[in-house]
Amino acid sequence: MSNAPSDWEVVIGLEVHVQLHTRAKVFASSPWGFGKEPNEQVDPVVLGLPGTLPVVNREAVEKSILFGLVVGASVPEHCSWDRKNYFYPDNPKNYQLTQKDFPVVVGGQVEIELPGASRNVMGEHKFIRIHHAHLEEDVGKLSHAGSGSLVDYNRAGVPLLEIVTEPDLRSSAEAEAFLRSLVAMLTQAGVADCDMEKGQLRCDCNVSIRRRGAEKLGTRTETKNLNSISSVRDTVIYETARQIRELEAGRSITQETRGWNAELARGYVLRDKEDAHDYRYFPDPDIPTLKISRETVARLAKQVPENLYDRQRRYVEKLGLPYTAASVLVNDRALAEWFEAAVAAHPTNPSGIANLVANDLLRDLAASATAPVSLESCPIKPAQLAGLVKLTDEGVISKQQAKEVFAEMFTSGRDAAAIVDAKGLRQNSDTGELEKIVQEVIADPAVAKSIAEYRAGNEKAINALKGPIMKRTQGKANPVLIDQLLRKFLA
Amino acid sequence: MAEGFDIDHLAKLARLSLTAEEKVLYSSQLNQILGHFQALADADLPATIDDARVVNEAALRSDEPGPVLGAEAVTRIAPASRDGQISVPRVVDDES
To answer: What is the residue-wise DSSP string for A73-117?
Structure first.
């Protein structure tokens, strides 16, 4: 689906709120986690009760810095917290602790990959700049029931990193690709889990349009609180179409805050600029400015995993993997590392290993395990898979037999070689015995026509001779060896 | 309304009953106070780091979960509650 007819260009900026992977809350020691009874994860600091003081959680700061290092941002020497004042019962203190002037992360960029023409073809790559990221506290959850509203403060105070992009995105596809890339980077670095079903990633989406070629940005709208990648995509498509319709009808765009109804797939106005909040930001007097040592930054830099697209390029260029397999492997760091452990055990055929991992292993894991698919419970270990590929490469078993052995390995967790022996699958590689059979088959008048064709230059005609050889050996002849012997005798 | 605020509304929010004289007096005083803040707000002051209140990472807390109050204690200190949640007048920032 195209976002904009050719004479309009859509300009998108995202604010992505990510719950950081910590055990305790960001300014309080209260634990947090999904699925607890209401208000069971609340302490006096979360409620802002008199006499309490917030103290910043080291892990939340370090996870924020780690994110900055993952996207190549700078980590300023100082960061500080401000109060964002507003009156709404989702926040017990009447202000949210956030970072306005001195955020923990400044700059950086996220590489994205757009969908290719087909699944087998890599799409265009682009870099989306990050303006900054700031560490703040999440707010409580309201549910509306009849004439009243109910408040659960379990989520209040959960560490939230707000990642703000530059207005660099130009289509719903780019917004979607950006979020997928960002989620992969955050999860692979252990910064966040980004489970959208648990509300661990939410997005505000700024959209404006302008005539193609125009430099000045159009008036933008902000659609708040989108809790899935598909909602962001649909919002961009909806908002682009709506703004084009307005402008082409001679009306103007109002700067406004909007909501998104995913069920009805339509947006709606929350408030326009006239009743925009004045948050009266001021530096929080309870939390001193934090100086971040360069030693901490250097220590965290060592935890930055290989960027997924650097890994993908390495797999394709250095290991010779097809794009299809490489792109599947790099999306999951544990899977990529599992694959690399197998390659280390049998370095000569990375593609053979990648094929089994990306297709057979993932399929069987998905079919056997309850979600999410976990490699930890995988019955096959990397070295065992490498052993199977090695047996196939050496011609001990055929590719067809390898599938059978794989299935058996997945059920029993036994080594490939043990299964091959137990099942008597080992191919006949006794050259002397095979030479005899090959010569007998060649002498059979029934195949004379095929031999003549092969000698006349028809390469494929040689295959007609392999069937009878296989039949005489009950399918145990090493196909690589048969091919070599046939060519030798027919030369 | 010259003041930029509604004294009756503010009094209501603060749960105060004011006489007519008090309304005049407090409106004038509040205007003076707001005037001071306006002067501060009008000053062009870039954000700066206050060196006097900088701490290093030793001032951070470790990521160790501590005790919680429990829903029973949380709802007990709220004016109204229901099913372990704090009950408030209906607030909707939503599609109407």
So the answer is: -B--SEE--EEEE---TT-TTSEEEE-SSS-SEE--EEEEE---S
Distance CA A302, CA A22 (A): 19
Contact check, Cβ <8 Å, A30/B86: no
- Picking from A57, A144, A288, the nearest residue to B53 by CB comes out as A288
Give the C-alpha distances (Å, rounded to integers) separating A327 from A70, A374, A382.
Answer: 19, 19, 19
Q: Which residues of chain B have a Cβ shorter than 8 Å from any chain A Cβ?
A: 47, 49-50, 53-57, 59-71, 74-75, 82-95
Question: Per residue in B7-63, pLDDT tens?
Answer: 998 898 888 999 999 999 999 999 999 999 889 888 888 888 888 899 999 999 999
Q: Is B59 in contact with A288 (Cβ distance < 8 A)? A: yes
**Nearest Cβ partner for B47 among A39, A59, A101:** A101
pLDDT digits (tens, 9 = 90+) for A299-354: 999 999 999 999 999 999 999 999 999 999 999 999 999 999 999 999 999 999 99
DSSP H/E element including A129 = strand A125-137
With beta carbons under 8 A apart, name residues in chain A contacting B61: 24, 29, 55-58
Tell whether A334 is within 8 A of chain B (Cβ): no
Q: Which residues contact A23 (CB under 8 A, 6 or more apart)?
A: A31, A32, A59, B63, B64, B65
Interchain proximity A58–B60, CB inside 8 Å:
yes
CATH topology of domain A431-490: Arc Repressor Mutant, subunit A (1.10.10)
Q: Which residues of B touch A153 (CB under 8 A)?
A: 74, 86
Contact between A100 and A281 under an 8 Å Cβ cutoff? The reply is yes
Which DSSP state fits B59? G
CA distance A172 to chain B (A): 24
Give CA–CA dist A197/A138, Å, rounded. Answer: 16
Portion 72-101 of A in contact with B at CB < 8 A: 78, 80, 88-89, 100-101
Q: ipTM of the predicted structure?
A: 0.80
For chain B, what are the domain ranges? 7-42
- In chain A, CATH 1.10.10.410 sits at 431-490
- Counting runs of H as helices and runs of E as strands, what totals does chain A give? 17, 16
